[in-house]
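Hi team,

Below is the intake form for Alpha-amylase family protein from Sinomonas flava. Please confirm the fields before the structure is written into the shared record.

FORM ID: S-0412
PROTEIN: Alpha-amylase family protein
ORGANISM: Sinomonas flava
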Amino acid sequence: MRITDTSDLWWKTGVIYCVDVETFFDSDGDGIGDLAGLAQRVDYLAELGVTCLWLMPFYPTPGRDDGYDITDFYGVDHRLGHHGDLVELIRTARDRGMRVIADLVVNHTSDRHPWFKSARSSKDSPYRDFYVWRSEPPPDTSREVVFPDQEQSIWTLDEKTGEWYLHHFYRHQPDLNVANPQVRDEIAKAIGFWLEVGLSGFRVDAVPYFLSMLGVDSKELAEFANPHEYLRALTKFMGRRCGDAVLLGEVNLPYKEQLEYFGGAEGGELTMMFDFILMQNTYLAMARQDARPLARALKDRPQTTPDCQWATFVRNHDELTLDKLSDSERQEVFDAFGADPSMQVYGRGLKRRVPPMMDGDPRRIRLMYSLLFTLPGTPVLYYGEEIGMGENLEAEGRMAVRTPMQWTADASAGFSTAPPHRLVARVTGGGYGPEHVNVAGQRRDQGSLLRFITLLTQRYRECPELGWGHYEVLSHRTPSVLAHRCTWDDASMLAVHNLSSEAVTVSLVLGDPPLGPSGETDGGWRGVVLVDLLPSGDYPEDGIPVADDGAVTVPLAGYGYAWLRIQHPAQRRLI
Ligand code: GLC
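The structure came back. Fields below:
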């Protein structure tokens, strides 16, 4: 493989870590996490193997959607620090080989943004057309709202001017009108600004809503054409300003539509997209102890262009959405992982984190994270996953998983020197509270989840086939097992995951023999063995032999998994 093909595609072998500055580490004892605190914990993240930090919104905000309601696209929420602190964080991260990206929330602003304040003051406001208005009473849109517990319509009447404004999310988040060239310029300027400050790209919030031209009249639409042309232009603009910056998009749509947001077969739009379909099918497969939903999702997943990449995740900061499963499939996942209505939200998702959903079973938790790091794509961790934090079900909705990071066993979790009642969010209690789950304890424990996840990030980084390679889902007769093979150049790996509690033995045929280090193919399967890349102790040290036809048999414990390098006899890759 040539340098020109791969070496700059850092996002294809990255480990992304999503952090909410407010709840990560408080450096000044006011009970609120801050940028200076996060900078102090960059070495911890570097040791974990993180290569890219994703900062959730840190902009000025009234805080009615946890920072996703912004009043100034150029500012820093003063509770978290100021621009100087942000630059120090970015510099420190860069020094440890880590990039920083941040949420770009441009579908809407807060209703307290000066643009909206002006827009709603008069129909003649210069900012009126920054938002989307209608003068006729809206039809019933109750099925289109994103937060059905709070909103009944995506249009709200603004008394003063007697017109309705569009908001896909909360009514205090009016949608920006991206058909307006001035709005497009403002978005480009904000992107340009943060790139100059040192960000390496953005997690783009709510992309399909951001690009939707709903409410825009057809004359304007003709002029501004297709939203994908706009996205392509925005991507090009970013590329001119910063060649290796990425746009990681939140696009929770069926695969076929997602592909369009990559720019279809030509690419050129989003660099990365979260794989919501694979995530949801992972939970369905785990609930059924049957790997077939996962295998099906991987087979259905469209090929991207070489520069693009899927981002894999098993938890994020929102509800664990199951909206793309059928009603009965969703019910199966609810029954398995959150049967109590207090664990569910919006009728489509769960408020829980992975370990409590897996009943704290370490085998199953590790299985989940082994999947995360081997499912083709770039893994994204949500803060606290590496130590197995739980949720606070008493917190409202999605806030259940936005509790303070647990550094030590003390009552404020080592997150802050302020007492627990003065913290920005309540610390998780019970069996997942800081006295049981914290970084300090796990750093001292060789058998901890933290050590395990660190091992996974290291192995993942050493296995280029996982990020850069192509994959095949292998057929066999053991329904509980997902077997997939990833290959890039002369590196090839078989990953096997047994979703059942019963031990199994899976027999399969591997396909083409691996290449030798100089690309040689003549030896066939002669001398090829499967080498265990995780030191499980379950397999022979000199490897599992492969038969002449590529057939192999792998035993797996209940909830067992293995990363097996398909090792050519002349290969010298690190194992
Ligand atoms: C995205 C964010 C979510 C937020 C919403 C509105 O879906 O992930 O947290 O509430 O956008 O900005």
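SUMMARY LINE: The longest strand covers residues 481-488.

Thanks, M.
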